[in-house]
Amino acid sequence: MRKIGEGTFSEVVKVQNLKNGKHYACKTMKQSINSLEQAHNLREVQAMKRLSPHPNILQLHELIFDPDTRTLSLICELMEMNIYELIRGRQYPLTENKVKHYMYQLCKALDHMHSNGIFHRDVKPENILIKHDVLKLADFGSCRSVYSKPPHTEYISTRWYRAPECLLTDGYYSLKMDIWSAGCVFFEIMSLNPLFPGSNEVDQVSKIHDVLGTPESMVLQKFKQSRSMHFDFLPRKGCGLSQLVPRCSAPSLSLLYQMLAYDPDERISARVALQHTCFRELRLGERRAVGLQRNIGTVDADTSSTPSSVEHLWRIARQVRLEHLNKSLTFVQLLNSCYTNK
Questions:
Q1: 229-239 pLDDT, tens per residue?
Q2: How high does pLDDT run on average in the chain?
Q3: How far apart are CA 213 and CA 143, in angstroms?
Q4: In this structure, are strands 118-119 and 144-145 parallel, antiparallel, or unpaired?
Q5: Of the residues 66, 68, 111, 122, which is catalytic?
Q6: What domain of life (predicted)?
Q7: Integer Cα distance of 65 and 72 in angstroms
Q8: Considering the chain, what percentage of its residues have pLDDT values greater than 70?
């Protein structure tokens, strides 16, 4: 066993299954669990079961409950690193095509979650895992049903990735908070720096206004109706995102602005984001790969997760030659397409 991570509520170690020799990530909860039934009813466990299988959601393999110590462990697939580890200490940014590749997969994960009635509430680089260019969203301990009525009282979302409605209201937020957080991650992967590194909640709001400017009075009025305390902000223009990522293409900048819309009602959804021009070439690559797969006619989408099918998808992927895509990217697109078309 080797420790690979630790948080407030859990510890993660790398373990090996002695029967099959495979390695997994074992997440042991720090809270005491009274029974296996209680374990199965945990929000995180229920969410992972509901969302599986999906190529961009971390897979839960097994639950292990020790009644003597009342500890619960989640045995999950093992990934190589998280996004924070990927970009930490890099001297040069990733290519924009690589960034788009990751963001496309993140939007697919969020769309799958939201369409299944769940929002994550803690999207950040540390909770986004990578292996062989495949991205998977993880850590569903803060997730919530989209049908639960506000106000949501729990402390949620890491401050730097917290949406304005989470900062300026008493718990009146929705799944659109995930999109804001994903927009912050988008910027961070591009620039290698956090977008809004506030030192406290007041400074967090100030840093948002430094970049995006203060919102229109109508937007602030919405927030005021959902908060007991009074706030007013002096008008500020903001430096704009283009000043911070000058090499960012127009389509990527457009999507970034839509993900970081101050008003959650105006913020883009994950599903609409997937259709944005920013991802046009990725969608085209998917269509070509799936079309080639259908022409060959030997792999059915319903069996795309079997080992033999995976090998066949690799053979198909090698035939898809788009300049901005590498083999692993095309392979991921094929898997995503198979799950989408189920």
A1: 577 788 889 99
A2: 87
A3: 30
A4: antiparallel
A5: 122
A6: Eukaryota
A7: 5
A8: 84
* 27 marked among binding-site residues: yes
Q: Among 3.40.50.720, 1.25.40.20, 1.10.510.10, 1.50.10.100, what is the CATH number of 81-275?
A: 1.10.510.10
Relative to beta strand 118-119, strand 128-131 is: unpaired
Which residues have a Cβ under 8 Å from the Cβ of 9 and sit 6 or more positions away?
Answer: 29, 30, 31, 141
Please say if 122 is a catalytic residue. yes
Instruction: Write a three-state SS string for 206-237.
Output: HHHHHHHCCCCHHHHHHHHCCCCCCCCCCCCC
- What is the spatial distance between Cα 122 and Cα 119, in angstroms, rounded to a whole number? 9
Please tell me the predicted confidence (pLDDT) of residue 237: 93
Distance in angstroms (rounded) separating the CA atoms of residues 15 and 17: 7
Short-list 177, 159, 171, 146, CA closest to 259: 177
User: With bands split at pLDDT 50, 70 and 90, how would you rate the model's confidence at 155?
Assistant: low
Digit-coded pLDDT (tens) for 71-98: 999 999 999 999 999 999 899 999 999 9
> What type of residue sits at position 329?
L
- CATH among 3.30.50.10, 3.40.718.10, 3.90.180.10, 3.30.200.20 for 2-77: 3.30.200.20
Per DSSP (E only), the strands in 56-165 are 60-66, 71-77, 81-82, 118-119, 128-131, 134-137, 144-145
Query: pLDDT value at position 229?
Result: 58
265-296 pLDDT per residue, tens: 999 999 999 999 999 999 999 888 888 877 77
Q: Is 71 exposed, middle or buried (0-12, 13-18, 19+ CB in 10 A)?
A: middle
pLDDT average, residue stretch 306-328: 46
Please state the rounded mean pLDDT for residues 27-37. Answer: 93
State yes or no: cis peptide before 53, omega within 30 of 0.
yes
- Entry pTM: 0.85
Distance, CA of 342 to CA of 340 (rounded, Å): 6
